[in-house]
Design goal:
This protein is mainly alpha-helical. Helices cover about 80% and strands about 0% of the residues. It has 31 helices and no strands. Helix 1 packs antiparallel against helix 2, helix 10 runs antiparallel to helix 11 and helix 24 runs antiparallel to helix 25. The longest helix is centred in the N-terminal third of the chain and has 28 residues. The chain is flat. The chain starts with a helix and ends in a 6-residue tail after the last helix.
Protein backbone atom coordinates (compact mmCIF):
# COMPACT_ATOMS: atom_id res chain seq x y z
CA UNK A 1 0.00 0.00 0.00
CA UNK A 2 1.42 3.39 -0.98
CA UNK A 3 1.98 6.18 1.50
CA UNK A 4 -0.79 8.16 -0.16
CA UNK A 5 -3.22 5.28 0.37
CA UNK A 6 -2.30 5.04 4.07
CA UNK A 7 -2.90 8.75 4.53
CA UNK A 8 -6.24 8.53 2.73
CA UNK A 9 -7.30 5.58 4.84
CA UNK A 10 -6.26 7.40 8.03
CA UNK A 11 -8.23 10.50 7.03
CA UNK A 12 -11.26 8.35 6.24
CA UNK A 13 -11.02 6.56 9.60
CA UNK A 14 -10.68 9.87 11.41
CA UNK A 15 -13.76 11.27 9.67
CA UNK A 16 -15.80 8.17 10.49
CA UNK A 17 -14.65 8.37 14.13
CA UNK A 18 -15.56 12.09 14.32
CA UNK A 19 -18.97 11.44 12.77
CA UNK A 20 -19.83 8.62 15.18
CA UNK A 21 -18.45 10.53 18.17
CA UNK A 22 -20.42 13.68 17.30
CA UNK A 23 -23.60 11.63 16.95
CA UNK A 24 -22.88 9.95 20.32
CA UNK A 25 -22.51 13.35 21.98
CA UNK A 26 -25.81 14.50 20.47
CA UNK A 27 -27.64 11.38 21.64
CA UNK A 28 -26.13 11.81 25.10
CA UNK A 29 -27.37 15.41 25.21
CA UNK A 30 -30.88 14.21 24.29
CA UNK A 31 -30.81 11.67 27.10
CA UNK A 32 -30.68 8.72 24.70
CA UNK A 33 -28.00 6.94 26.69
CA UNK A 34 -28.45 3.50 25.10
CA UNK A 35 -27.84 4.93 21.64
CA UNK A 36 -24.89 7.02 22.86
CA UNK A 37 -23.36 3.96 24.53
CA UNK A 38 -23.56 1.90 21.33
CA UNK A 39 -22.10 4.71 19.24
CA UNK A 40 -19.17 5.19 21.65
CA UNK A 41 -18.33 1.50 21.50
CA UNK A 42 -18.34 1.78 17.71
CA UNK A 43 -15.94 4.74 18.02
CA UNK A 44 -13.28 2.72 19.87
CA UNK A 45 -13.60 -0.02 17.27
CA UNK A 46 -12.98 2.51 14.48
CA UNK A 47 -10.03 4.24 16.15
CA UNK A 48 -8.70 2.87 19.47
CA UNK A 49 -6.10 5.64 19.62
CA UNK A 50 -8.60 8.38 20.54
CA UNK A 51 -9.21 9.05 24.21
CA UNK A 52 -12.60 10.80 24.31
CA UNK A 53 -14.75 7.74 23.60
CA UNK A 54 -12.96 5.70 26.28
CA UNK A 55 -13.53 8.48 28.81
CA UNK A 56 -17.28 8.65 28.18
CA UNK A 57 -17.57 4.87 28.07
CA UNK A 58 -16.00 4.67 31.53
CA UNK A 59 -18.88 6.76 32.87
CA UNK A 60 -21.49 4.49 31.28
CA UNK A 61 -19.81 1.35 32.58
CA UNK A 62 -19.66 2.96 36.01
CA UNK A 63 -23.40 3.68 35.90
CA UNK A 64 -23.97 0.02 35.00
CA UNK A 65 -21.90 -1.03 38.06
CA UNK A 66 -19.35 -2.70 35.76
CA UNK A 67 -16.30 -1.55 37.73
CA UNK A 68 -13.68 -3.48 35.82
CA UNK A 69 -14.79 -2.18 32.40
CA UNK A 70 -15.13 1.36 33.79
CA UNK A 71 -11.62 1.24 35.21
CA UNK A 72 -10.16 -0.19 32.00
CA UNK A 73 -11.69 2.60 29.93
CA UNK A 74 -10.52 5.44 32.16
CA UNK A 75 -7.05 3.85 32.34
CA UNK A 76 -6.97 3.75 28.53
CA UNK A 77 -8.06 7.39 28.22
CA UNK A 78 -5.45 8.49 30.78
CA UNK A 79 -2.70 6.50 29.03
CA UNK A 80 -3.53 8.03 25.64
CA UNK A 81 -3.51 11.59 27.07
CA UNK A 82 -1.28 11.58 30.16
CA UNK A 83 -1.28 15.41 30.20
CA UNK A 84 -5.08 15.60 30.52
CA UNK A 85 -5.76 16.55 34.16
CA UNK A 86 -9.44 15.55 33.97
CA UNK A 87 -8.57 12.03 32.89
CA UNK A 88 -5.90 11.70 35.57
CA UNK A 89 -8.23 12.93 38.31
CA UNK A 90 -10.95 10.50 37.24
CA UNK A 91 -8.45 7.67 37.17
CA UNK A 92 -7.23 8.54 40.66
CA UNK A 93 -10.83 8.65 41.93
CA UNK A 94 -11.51 5.27 40.34
CA UNK A 95 -8.52 3.76 42.15
CA UNK A 96 -9.60 5.36 45.44
CA UNK A 97 -13.14 3.99 45.08
CA UNK A 98 -11.62 0.54 44.58
CA UNK A 99 -9.34 1.08 47.62
CA UNK A 100 -6.28 0.82 45.39
CA UNK A 101 -4.62 3.68 47.22
CA UNK A 102 -1.07 2.93 46.04
CA UNK A 103 -2.08 3.26 42.40
CA UNK A 104 -4.10 6.41 43.15
CA UNK A 105 -1.04 7.95 44.82
CA UNK A 106 1.11 7.29 41.74
CA UNK A 107 -1.41 9.04 39.52
CA UNK A 108 -1.76 12.02 41.85
CA UNK A 109 2.01 12.40 42.21
CA UNK A 110 2.23 12.53 38.43
CA UNK A 111 -0.57 15.07 38.31
CA UNK A 112 1.18 17.26 40.89
CA UNK A 113 4.43 17.12 38.91
CA UNK A 114 2.49 18.60 35.98
CA UNK A 115 0.71 21.24 38.10
CA UNK A 116 2.74 22.38 41.11
CA UNK A 117 -0.03 24.74 42.26
CA UNK A 118 -2.51 21.93 42.98
CA UNK A 119 -2.81 22.13 46.77
CA UNK A 120 -5.92 19.95 46.62
CA UNK A 121 -3.91 17.12 45.05
CA UNK A 122 -1.36 17.31 47.86
CA UNK A 123 -4.16 17.22 50.43
CA UNK A 124 -5.55 14.01 48.95
CA UNK A 125 -2.06 12.49 48.77
CA UNK A 126 -1.53 13.13 52.48
CA UNK A 127 -4.76 11.31 53.27
CA UNK A 128 -3.80 8.38 51.04
CA UNK A 129 -0.36 8.05 52.60
CA UNK A 130 -1.85 8.23 56.09
CA UNK A 131 -4.37 5.52 55.16
CA UNK A 132 -1.50 3.29 54.04
CA UNK A 133 0.65 4.21 57.08
CA UNK A 134 3.28 5.63 54.74
CA UNK A 135 4.18 8.38 57.16
CA UNK A 136 7.49 9.33 55.58
CA UNK A 137 5.76 9.97 52.26
CA UNK A 138 3.08 11.95 54.09
CA UNK A 139 5.76 14.12 55.74
CA UNK A 140 7.44 14.80 52.39
CA UNK A 141 4.06 15.77 50.93
CA UNK A 142 3.38 18.12 53.84
CA UNK A 143 6.75 19.75 53.16
CA UNK A 144 5.64 20.37 49.56
CA UNK A 145 2.43 21.91 50.87
CA UNK A 146 4.44 24.16 53.19
CA UNK A 147 6.33 25.59 50.20
CA UNK A 148 2.96 26.75 48.82
CA UNK A 149 1.10 27.78 52.00
CA UNK A 150 3.98 28.57 54.33
CA UNK A 151 4.47 27.14 57.82
CA UNK A 152 1.28 26.87 59.83
CA UNK A 153 -0.13 25.26 62.96
CA UNK A 154 -2.14 22.76 60.92
CA UNK A 155 0.78 21.54 58.81
CA UNK A 156 3.33 21.48 61.64
CA UNK A 157 0.96 19.61 63.92
CA UNK A 158 0.28 17.06 61.17
CA UNK A 159 4.00 16.55 60.53
CA UNK A 160 4.66 16.19 64.23
CA UNK A 161 1.93 13.54 64.53
CA UNK A 162 3.41 11.59 61.64
CA UNK A 163 6.85 11.73 63.25
CA UNK A 164 5.24 10.40 66.42
CA UNK A 165 3.67 7.55 64.44
CA UNK A 166 7.12 6.74 63.08
CA UNK A 167 8.48 6.66 66.62
CA UNK A 168 10.76 9.61 65.93
CA UNK A 169 10.01 11.52 69.12
CA UNK A 170 12.90 13.90 68.65
CA UNK A 171 11.71 15.04 65.23
CA UNK A 172 8.10 15.28 66.46
CA UNK A 173 9.13 17.58 69.30
CA UNK A 174 11.53 19.57 67.13
CA UNK A 175 8.78 20.27 64.58
CA UNK A 176 6.49 21.85 67.19
CA UNK A 177 9.34 23.62 68.94
CA UNK A 178 10.30 25.25 65.67
CA UNK A 179 6.71 26.50 65.27
CA UNK A 180 6.60 27.79 68.86
CA UNK A 181 9.97 29.53 68.46
CA UNK A 182 8.76 31.13 65.24
CA UNK A 183 5.83 32.72 67.14
CA UNK A 184 7.23 33.20 70.69
CA UNK A 185 4.42 35.50 71.83
CA UNK A 186 1.63 33.14 70.82
CA UNK A 187 0.89 30.99 73.84
CA UNK A 188 -1.31 28.65 71.79
CA UNK A 189 1.73 27.51 69.81
CA UNK A 190 3.59 26.96 73.07
CA UNK A 191 0.62 24.89 74.18
CA UNK A 192 0.85 22.72 71.07
CA UNK A 193 4.55 22.28 71.73
CA UNK A 194 3.74 21.23 75.30
CA UNK A 195 1.14 18.77 74.01
CA UNK A 196 3.80 17.17 71.81
CA UNK A 197 6.22 16.94 74.72
CA UNK A 198 3.50 15.32 76.83
CA UNK A 199 2.55 12.76 74.16
CA UNK A 200 6.18 11.87 73.62
CA UNK A 201 6.96 11.20 77.27
CA UNK A 202 8.34 14.53 78.49
CA UNK A 203 5.43 15.18 80.86
CA UNK A 204 7.30 17.20 83.48
CA UNK A 205 8.58 19.70 80.93
CA UNK A 206 5.11 19.88 79.33
CA UNK A 207 3.46 20.63 82.69
CA UNK A 208 5.97 23.40 83.37
CA UNK A 209 5.05 25.02 80.05
CA UNK A 210 1.29 24.69 80.74
CA UNK A 211 1.70 26.39 84.14
CA UNK A 212 3.84 29.13 82.61
CA UNK A 213 1.23 29.74 79.91
CA UNK A 214 -1.46 30.11 82.58
CA UNK A 215 0.77 32.50 84.51
CA UNK A 216 0.86 34.70 81.42
CA UNK A 217 -2.70 33.96 80.25
CA UNK A 218 -4.88 32.62 83.08
CA UNK A 219 -7.78 32.00 80.64
CA UNK A 220 -5.77 30.14 77.99
CA UNK A 221 -8.14 27.40 76.84
CA UNK A 222 -5.60 24.90 75.53
CA UNK A 223 -3.47 24.97 78.67
CA UNK A 224 -6.52 24.70 80.93
CA UNK A 225 -7.93 21.75 78.99
CA UNK A 226 -4.56 19.98 78.90
CA UNK A 227 -3.97 20.39 82.64
CA UNK A 228 -7.50 19.25 83.40
CA UNK A 229 -7.04 16.10 81.32
CA UNK A 230 -3.78 15.38 83.15
CA UNK A 231 -5.26 15.92 86.61
CA UNK A 232 -8.24 13.71 85.80
CA UNK A 233 -6.10 10.86 84.49
CA UNK A 234 -3.03 11.01 86.71
CA UNK A 235 -3.30 13.85 89.20
CA UNK A 236 -5.15 14.86 92.35
CA UNK A 237 -9.00 14.42 92.28
CA UNK A 238 -9.47 17.58 94.34
CA UNK A 239 -7.24 19.53 91.97
CA UNK A 240 -9.17 18.04 89.04
CA UNK A 241 -12.48 19.14 90.58
CA UNK A 242 -11.20 22.68 91.11
CA UNK A 243 -9.80 22.83 87.58
CA UNK A 244 -13.10 21.56 86.18
CA UNK A 245 -14.92 24.47 87.77
CA UNK A 246 -12.25 26.90 86.57
CA UNK A 247 -12.52 25.58 83.01
CA UNK A 248 -16.33 25.65 83.00
CA UNK A 249 -16.31 29.30 84.09
CA UNK A 250 -13.51 30.39 81.77
CA UNK A 251 -14.59 32.93 79.16
CA UNK A 252 -12.27 31.37 76.55
CA UNK A 253 -13.69 27.85 76.76
CA UNK A 254 -16.18 26.94 74.04
CA UNK A 255 -19.75 25.83 74.62
CA UNK A 256 -18.80 22.43 73.17
CA UNK A 257 -16.05 22.13 75.81
CA UNK A 258 -18.51 22.87 78.61
CA UNK A 259 -21.06 20.41 77.29
CA UNK A 260 -18.44 17.67 76.99
CA UNK A 261 -17.15 18.30 80.52
CA UNK A 262 -20.64 18.38 82.01
CA UNK A 263 -21.56 15.12 80.30
CA UNK A 264 -18.47 13.60 81.87
CA UNK A 265 -19.48 15.01 85.27
CA UNK A 266 -23.02 13.63 84.87
CA UNK A 267 -21.70 10.22 83.84
CA UNK A 268 -19.33 10.11 86.81
CA UNK A 269 -22.09 11.24 89.17
CA UNK A 270 -24.44 8.51 87.97
CA UNK A 271 -21.71 5.87 88.32
CA UNK A 272 -21.10 6.98 91.89
CA UNK A 273 -24.75 6.75 92.94
CA UNK A 274 -26.51 9.61 91.22
CA UNK A 275 -26.09 12.41 93.77
CA UNK A 276 -26.97 15.54 91.80
CA UNK A 277 -25.54 18.08 94.25
CA UNK A 278 -22.22 18.77 92.51
CA UNK A 279 -23.69 18.60 89.01
CA UNK A 280 -26.41 21.11 89.84
CA UNK A 281 -23.85 23.34 91.59
CA UNK A 282 -21.71 23.45 88.44
CA UNK A 283 -24.73 24.18 86.25
CA UNK A 284 -25.78 26.94 88.65
CA UNK A 285 -22.33 28.54 88.53
CA UNK A 286 -22.26 28.47 84.72
CA UNK A 287 -25.77 29.83 84.34
CA UNK A 288 -24.83 32.79 86.53
CA UNK A 289 -22.41 33.85 83.78
CA UNK A 290 -23.49 35.75 80.62
CA UNK A 291 -24.62 33.13 78.10
CA UNK A 292 -23.58 33.26 74.45
CA UNK A 293 -25.81 30.34 73.49
CA UNK A 294 -28.44 28.10 75.05
CA UNK A 295 -26.54 24.78 75.04
CA UNK A 296 -25.60 24.73 78.73
CA UNK A 297 -29.11 25.69 79.87
CA UNK A 298 -30.65 23.05 77.59
CA UNK A 299 -28.37 20.34 79.00
CA UNK A 300 -29.19 21.54 82.51
CA UNK A 301 -32.94 21.28 81.87
CA UNK A 302 -32.47 17.83 80.35
CA UNK A 303 -30.53 16.70 83.41
CA UNK A 304 -33.15 18.13 85.78
CA UNK A 305 -35.82 16.23 83.86
CA UNK A 306 -33.74 13.07 84.24
CA UNK A 307 -33.56 13.66 88.00
CA UNK A 308 -37.35 14.34 88.07
CA UNK A 309 -36.96 17.73 89.67
CA UNK A 310 -39.97 20.04 90.25
CA UNK A 311 -41.46 21.69 87.18
CA UNK A 312 -40.98 25.20 88.53
CA UNK A 313 -37.23 24.58 88.96
CA UNK A 314 -36.92 23.31 85.40
CA UNK A 315 -39.09 26.16 84.13
CA UNK A 316 -36.63 28.72 85.51
CA UNK A 317 -33.84 27.14 83.44
CA UNK A 318 -36.02 26.91 80.34
CA UNK A 319 -36.76 30.62 80.69
CA UNK A 320 -33.01 31.21 80.53
CA UNK A 321 -32.91 29.17 77.33
CA UNK A 322 -35.52 31.47 75.79
CA UNK A 323 -33.66 34.60 76.85
CA UNK A 324 -30.67 33.50 74.77
CA UNK A 325 -32.56 31.58 72.05
CA UNK A 326 -36.16 32.82 71.88
CA UNK A 327 -36.73 30.65 68.81
CA UNK A 328 -35.99 27.41 70.70
CA UNK A 329 -39.31 25.68 70.07
CA UNK A 330 -38.66 22.59 72.19
CA UNK A 331 -37.94 24.63 75.32
CA UNK A 332 -41.03 26.75 74.80
CA UNK A 333 -43.22 23.69 74.21
CA UNK A 334 -41.97 22.19 77.46
CA UNK A 335 -42.92 25.40 79.27
CA UNK A 336 -46.34 25.22 77.64
CA UNK A 337 -46.64 21.64 78.91
CA UNK A 338 -45.83 22.73 82.47
CA UNK A 339 -48.33 25.59 82.26
CA UNK A 340 -50.96 23.14 81.01
CA UNK A 341 -50.32 20.83 83.97
CA UNK A 342 -50.72 23.83 86.27
CA UNK A 343 -53.93 24.89 84.46
CA UNK A 344 -52.25 28.27 83.81
CA UNK A 345 -54.02 29.34 80.64
CA UNK A 346 -52.65 32.88 80.75
CA UNK A 347 -49.06 31.62 80.65
CA UNK A 348 -49.89 29.31 77.74
CA UNK A 349 -51.39 32.20 75.81
CA UNK A 350 -48.37 34.41 76.49
CA UNK A 351 -45.86 31.70 75.56
CA UNK A 352 -47.68 30.84 72.34
CA UNK A 353 -48.11 34.48 71.38
CA UNK A 354 -44.34 34.98 71.54
CA UNK A 355 -43.74 31.67 69.77
CA UNK A 356 -45.80 32.78 66.80
CA UNK A 357 -43.24 35.57 66.33
CA UNK A 358 -40.18 33.32 66.60
CA UNK A 359 -41.62 30.02 65.32
CA UNK A 360 -44.36 31.06 62.90
CA UNK A 361 -44.41 27.65 61.19
CA UNK A 362 -44.84 25.57 64.36
CA UNK A 363 -48.47 24.49 64.37
CA UNK A 364 -48.48 23.31 68.00
CA UNK A 365 -48.31 26.88 69.31
CA UNK A 366 -51.45 27.92 67.42
CA UNK A 367 -53.17 24.82 68.77
CA UNK A 368 -52.30 25.36 72.43
CA UNK A 369 -53.08 29.06 72.25
CA UNK A 370 -56.46 28.28 70.73
CA UNK A 371 -57.20 25.64 73.38
CA UNK A 372 -56.20 28.04 76.18
CA UNK A 373 -58.54 30.75 74.87
CA UNK A 374 -61.28 28.13 74.43
CA UNK A 375 -60.97 27.02 78.06
CA UNK A 376 -61.33 30.69 79.04
CA UNK A 377 -64.50 30.82 76.86
CA UNK A 378 -62.91 33.47 74.63
CA UNK A 379 -64.32 32.02 71.43
CA UNK A 380 -63.29 34.80 69.05
CA UNK A 381 -59.65 34.72 70.17
CA UNK A 382 -59.61 30.92 70.09
CA UNK A 383 -61.05 30.80 66.59
CA UNK A 384 -58.55 33.40 65.40
CA UNK A 385 -55.65 31.29 66.72
CA UNK A 386 -56.94 28.15 65.02
CA UNK A 387 -57.67 29.88 61.72
CA UNK A 388 -54.17 31.40 61.65
CA UNK A 389 -52.72 27.97 62.32
CA UNK A 390 -54.42 26.33 59.35
CA UNK A 391 -51.91 27.93 56.98
CA UNK A 392 -48.95 26.08 58.57
CA UNK A 393 -50.50 22.61 58.47
CA UNK A 394 -48.72 20.31 56.01
CA UNK A 395 -48.25 16.61 55.32
CA UNK A 396 -45.48 16.40 57.93
CA UNK A 397 -47.70 17.82 60.69
CA UNK A 398 -48.62 15.70 63.71
CA UNK A 399 -51.81 13.87 62.78
CA UNK A 400 -53.17 13.82 66.34
CA UNK A 401 -52.74 17.57 66.80
CA UNK A 402 -54.14 18.46 63.37
CA UNK A 403 -57.17 16.26 63.97
CA UNK A 404 -57.90 17.86 67.36
CA UNK A 405 -57.13 21.24 65.79
CA UNK A 406 -60.12 20.90 63.44
CA UNK A 407 -62.27 19.17 66.05
CA UNK A 408 -62.06 22.10 68.48
CA UNK A 409 -62.58 24.54 65.61
CA UNK A 410 -65.78 22.68 64.81
CA UNK A 411 -66.97 22.94 68.43
CA UNK A 412 -66.30 26.69 68.48
CA UNK A 413 -68.03 27.30 65.17
CA UNK A 414 -71.06 25.31 66.39
CA UNK A 415 -71.24 27.40 69.56
CA UNK A 416 -71.21 30.51 67.36
CA UNK A 417 -74.17 29.13 65.39
CA UNK A 418 -72.09 28.51 62.24
CA UNK A 419 -73.15 24.89 61.71
CA UNK A 420 -72.15 24.67 58.03
CA UNK A 421 -68.63 25.81 58.83
CA UNK A 422 -68.56 23.60 61.94
CA UNK A 423 -69.47 20.49 59.95
CA UNK A 424 -66.79 21.34 57.37
CA UNK A 425 -64.23 21.53 60.20
CA UNK A 426 -65.38 18.16 61.54
CA UNK A 427 -65.00 16.67 58.06
CA UNK A 428 -61.43 17.99 57.93
CA UNK A 429 -60.76 16.50 61.36
CA UNK A 430 -61.94 13.06 60.27
CA UNK A 431 -60.03 13.31 57.00
CA UNK A 432 -56.84 13.50 59.07
CA UNK A 433 -57.89 10.93 61.67
CA UNK A 434 -61.11 9.08 61.01
CA UNK A 435 -61.27 7.60 64.53
CA UNK A 436 -61.20 10.87 66.49
CA UNK A 437 -63.85 9.73 68.96
CA UNK A 438 -64.63 13.13 70.45
CA UNK A 439 -65.22 14.61 67.01
CA UNK A 440 -67.35 11.66 65.92
CA UNK A 441 -69.58 12.09 68.98
CA UNK A 442 -70.03 15.86 68.70
CA UNK A 443 -70.53 15.75 64.94
CA UNK A 444 -73.14 13.00 65.27
CA UNK A 445 -75.00 14.77 68.08
CA UNK A 446 -75.16 18.12 66.30
CA UNK A 447 -76.43 16.43 63.12
CA UNK A 448 -79.17 14.76 65.18
CA UNK A 449 -80.12 18.09 66.72
CA UNK A 450 -80.49 19.50 63.20
CA UNK A 451 -82.29 16.23 62.22
CA UNK A 452 -80.17 15.88 59.08
CA UNK A 453 -78.00 13.04 57.78
CA UNK A 454 -79.22 10.78 60.60
CA UNK A 455 -77.81 7.65 58.94
CA UNK A 456 -74.35 9.24 58.90
CA UNK A 457 -74.85 10.45 62.48
CA UNK A 458 -75.82 6.95 63.66
CA UNK A 459 -72.77 5.34 61.99
CA UNK A 460 -70.41 7.86 63.57
CA UNK A 461 -72.02 7.56 67.00
CA UNK A 462 -71.97 3.75 66.86
CA UNK A 463 -68.19 3.86 66.38
CA UNK A 464 -67.87 5.86 69.62
CA UNK A 465 -69.80 3.36 71.76
CA UNK A 466 -67.85 0.48 70.24
CA UNK A 467 -64.65 2.28 71.22
CA UNK A 468 -65.88 3.24 74.72
CA UNK A 469 -68.97 1.15 75.55
CA UNK A 470 -69.38 2.60 79.07
CA UNK A 471 -68.97 6.27 78.24
CA UNK A 472 -72.29 7.91 79.23
CA UNK A 473 -71.82 10.87 76.89
CA UNK A 474 -71.39 8.62 73.85
CA UNK A 475 -74.21 6.30 74.93
CA UNK A 476 -76.55 9.28 75.37
CA UNK A 477 -75.68 10.56 71.88
CA UNK A 478 -76.40 7.17 70.31
CA UNK A 479 -79.68 6.81 72.22
CA UNK A 480 -80.73 10.30 71.14
CA UNK A 481 -79.97 9.61 67.46
CA UNK A 482 -82.08 6.41 67.63
CA UNK A 483 -84.84 8.50 69.20
CA UNK A 484 -84.63 11.02 66.33
CA UNK A 485 -84.89 8.10 63.89
CA UNK A 486 -88.06 6.92 65.60
CA UNK A 487 -86.42 3.74 66.95
CA UNK A 488 -87.75 4.28 70.46
CA UNK A 489 -87.38 0.76 71.88
CA UNK A 490 -83.70 0.66 70.87
CA UNK A 491 -83.23 4.18 72.18
CA UNK A 492 -84.56 3.05 75.60
CA UNK A 493 -81.97 0.25 75.79
CA UNK A 494 -79.11 2.70 75.32
CA UNK A 495 -80.52 5.47 77.53
CA UNK A 496 -80.85 2.91 80.33
CA UNK A 497 -77.20 1.98 79.85
CA UNK A 498 -76.36 5.66 79.93
CA UNK A 499 -78.11 6.15 83.29
CA UNK A 500 -76.31 3.11 84.71
CA UNK A 501 -72.90 4.43 83.66
CA UNK A 502 -73.41 8.08 84.66
CA UNK A 503 -72.85 8.78 88.35
CA UNK A 504 -73.61 12.50 87.98
CA UNK A 505 -76.49 12.63 85.53
CA UNK A 506 -76.89 15.95 83.72
CA UNK A 507 -80.14 17.81 83.12
CA UNK A 508 -79.87 17.21 79.35
CA UNK A 509 -79.40 13.44 79.78
CA UNK A 510 -82.35 13.20 82.17
CA UNK A 511 -84.52 15.15 79.74
CA UNK A 512 -83.49 12.79 76.93
CA UNK A 513 -84.46 9.85 79.15
CA UNK A 514 -87.86 11.42 79.80
CA UNK A 515 -88.48 12.03 76.08
CA UNK A 516 -87.54 8.46 75.18
CA UNK A 517 -89.63 6.92 77.98
CA UNK A 518 -92.60 9.03 76.89
CA UNK A 519 -92.46 7.52 73.40
CA UNK A 520 -92.22 3.93 74.63
CA UNK A 521 -95.41 4.49 76.60
CA UNK A 522 -93.93 4.79 80.12
CA UNK A 523 -95.28 8.28 80.71
CA UNK A 524 -95.12 8.25 84.52
CA UNK A 525 -91.41 7.43 84.42
CA UNK A 526 -90.99 10.07 81.70
CA UNK A 527 -92.56 12.64 84.03
CA UNK A 528 -90.20 11.58 86.82
CA UNK A 529 -87.15 12.07 84.59
CA UNK A 530 -88.39 15.49 83.44
CA UNK A 531 -88.88 16.57 87.06
CA UNK A 532 -85.36 15.36 87.91
CA UNK A 533 -84.05 17.24 84.87
CA UNK A 534 -85.76 20.46 86.01
CA UNK A 535 -84.29 20.08 89.50
CA UNK A 536 -80.81 19.55 88.04
CA UNK A 537 -81.28 22.51 85.64
CA UNK A 538 -82.12 24.77 88.58
CA UNK A 539 -78.65 24.06 89.99
CA UNK A 540 -77.00 25.63 86.91
CA UNK A 541 -76.14 29.37 87.10
CA UNK A 542 -78.72 31.49 85.24
CA UNK A 543 -78.00 31.70 81.50
CA UNK A 544 -80.19 32.41 78.54
CA UNK A 545 -79.89 28.86 77.21
CA UNK A 546 -80.52 27.36 80.65
CA UNK A 547 -83.62 29.53 81.10
CA UNK A 548 -85.01 28.28 77.78
CA UNK A 549 -84.47 24.64 78.82
CA UNK A 550 -86.16 25.19 82.19
CA UNK A 551 -89.14 26.77 80.47
CA UNK A 552 -89.50 23.82 78.07
CA UNK A 553 -89.16 21.30 80.90
CA UNK A 554 -91.77 23.18 82.97
CA UNK A 555 -94.21 22.99 80.06
CA UNK A 556 -93.57 19.27 79.54
CA UNK A 557 -94.24 18.57 83.20
CA UNK A 558 -97.36 20.75 83.28
CA UNK A 559 -98.80 19.23 80.09
CA UNK A 560 -97.45 15.75 80.88
CA UNK A 561 -96.41 15.31 77.26
CA UNK A 562 -93.40 15.54 74.97
CA UNK A 563 -93.00 18.85 73.19
CA UNK A 564 -91.01 19.04 69.99
CA UNK A 565 -88.87 22.17 69.93
Amino acid sequence: MTGLSVVAQTVSMSRRYDAFFLEAVCERAKGNNDAAFDLLRRCVEIDPSKSEAYFYLSQYYGALKLKDQALACVEKAASIEPENATYQENLANAYINLHQYDKAAVVLERLYDQRRDREDVLGILIQLYEEQHEYEAAIKTLAKLETIEGKSERLSYAKSNFYTQLGDKKAAIAEMKHLADQYPNDQNYRGLYANTLFVNGQKKKALEIYHDILRLEPENRNALMALLAYEKDEGDPERAAALTEQVLLSKNVTSQDRILLMRQEIGQSEQEGGDSTRVLYLFHRMLEQPQMDADVAILCATYMNLKQMPNDSISAVLQQVLKVAPDHAAARLQLVSYAWQADDMNSIISLCKDARQYNPDEMAFYYYQGIAYYKQEKLEEALDAFQNGISVINQQSDVEIVSDFYAVMGDILHQKGLDKEAFAAYDSCLAWKDDNIGCLNNYAYYLSEKEILLDKAEQMSYRTIKAEPKNPTYLDTYAWILFKEGRYAEAKIYIDQTLQCDSDTSSVLLEHAGDIYYYVGEKDQALTYWQQALTRAAEVPPQAAAEDRREILTRKIKLKKYLKE
